[in-house]
Amino acid sequence: MQRLYTITQLTQEFDITTRTLRFYEAQGLVTPQRRGRQRLYNPADRTRIKLILRGKRLGFSLAEIREIIEMYGKAPGEAGQLKLLMEKITARRAELLEKRNDIEVSLAELDQVEAGARARMAEIGYVPDAGGADQ
């Protein structure tokens, strides 16, 4: 007999809200069985939830996560899924590297502006108080 998980068990295991799990259900990402009003999730649903949460931590959109997950059951199956995943990883890495570069440029610019402000403060004889707050 296949093990089934309740919504409470999965929300506690993955530290997510019932609302989140119901949202994934509404999006068609998981398909729990119904026993009256109770939702029962199978091991495949549990695995999907784990993959969804991992994808979100990596910065993938829900649409991208869905695309990756749904490829598993279609031709070319796992190989196609892995190829798509690698493409998504490459794109996400490029996006993050670009953001990191933008942040580094911004930080360098802030350093320059701060240095200029400090130099000007020294020129006009302004000395900030010990607490660093303006008077």
UniProtKB/TrEMBL annotation:
One Pfam family in the UniProt entry: MerR_1
Lineage of the organism: Bacteria, Pseudomonadati, Pseudomonadota, Alphaproteobacteria, Hyphomicrobiales
Protein name, as recorded: MerR family transcriptional regulator
UniProt-listed PROSITE patterns: HTH_MERR_2
Domain of life, per lineage: Bacteria
Sample GO molecular function, one term: DNA binding
Transmembrane segments: none
Gene3D superfamilies: 1.10.1660.10
Domain HTH merR-type: from-to ranges: 4-71
UniProt organism field: Roseibium aquae
Keywords: DNA-binding
